[in-house]
Automatic annotation (TrEMBL):
Domain DUF7910, first and last residues per copy: 149-191
Keywords: Glycosidase, Hydrolase
Pfam families for this protein: Cellulase, DUF7910
Family: Belongs to the glycosyl hydrolase 5 (cellulase A) family.
Protein name: Mannan endo-1,4-beta-mannosidase
Primary gene name: gb02869
Amino acid sequence: METRRFGPRPCDYGLECQKARANAKQEWKLERKANSRLARVLEFRFVLAPADWSTERDWHSPVATSTTTTRIVGEKRPATKSDQPLLSADAGVVLVCVAILLWDGLGDKEDVDFRKVRAVNLGGWLVVEGWIKPSLFDGIPNGDMLVGLLDGTQVQLKSVGLQKYVSASDGGGSNVTVNQDVASTWETFKVTNNSQLTSNHPSQPGWDDAMATFEMTVVANNLHGDYQLANGYGPEQAKAVLTEHRKSFVTGSNFAFLSQNSINAVRVPVGWWIAYDPDPPYPFIGGSLNALDTAFYWAQIYGLKCIIDLHAAPGSQNGMEHSASRDGSVDWPSEANIEKTLNVINFLAQRYADNPTLLGIELLNEPSAAAVPLDTLVSYYKSGYKIIRSYSDTAYVIFCQRIGDADPMELYKAYLGPTNTVVDLHYYNLFDPYFEKLNATENIQFIYKNRMPQVQTLNRANGPLVFIGRSADFF
């Protein structure tokens, strides 16, 4: 079969291309039939991350734990090893474990034909996560990773003269006064960048000695995603930065390396704006669709499969940077945003369903248990399943668990679809102080003694397959 790149939608292809697609689909169905049972084998694959990321360990938390007081923006942190391509072998310590586990939830173990799915996440490539590559923000005025003033940064202002904090009366902002001795919720404000102006006064002496009117305390500065990058740079500069990043951060040589080292799939996080390429809504930058097409092309050349993961949904499903949240708010669970998200799923399914490289589509990454009601999520998942099935009978439909205080079994109790369904579980030992007391061997043993029995229990639930889409540990 001819190796080619799938770009336009199916209806845009000529007759010869349509025949090639039909042949590819038939070949894919035969391959799936031959490997219809998946192994009950737990395998972990580690991605290397920067050793100095400890200053940003709170990237996954809604509020930063450290407080920095400053009158001016501090110096930018030097480039670190995190500025190297994600799959570079010379990164720092083994920190983030990305594991993919698929196995058959039916039948006895002896009857299972083994076919392992070993994969890595291509995180930080098509959806920006500042902790993975901090240097992406180096060119933004006041964009420093530690004390910068990007969208969503939470600050408190204290009058130098009065020694009191600025406060929003009654928490609503109808009246702002300087009258509080102690800063709390009403004294904490979120930054929104509407415009920027850099002013220098070299001809005016004395500015360096001018007294500050307010002291600004940066309470939380943990949002360094696509929204902050694009709005911070502005359209033209952001396009230049992201174009270079998408071209160089992950390359064909990375796919070759994976293929040569027993990896047979990649999970590619994408943002909702990919469906609007090449001109997505402001402030997002086009170009990620072409990069995803290229990923499928590389995967086909090197014999890998692709999982498309909707990492960032309209309005943000968890308020974090990797969902492209504007300011930490979670606005996804609205009728309009859910409808828009289903349109994105339709776009992705229509575009890639017949591509033999597609393994599955994940409908949503890490919805927040605190902000996304279970019934809303289940309804969305069922609708997304129907959309994918309208284009493909074989693509796996992946449902991510809610993060936070949620029952690991809740998605197993909901009948999400009859065929090729997968529940994605994420384990973050990294953010639990208990695991800081354990050494590397003890952390690994915990996985075998505690995590594996839990996964085996889910496997025996006679429902969807099990998928460990992400796991993080700290050694």
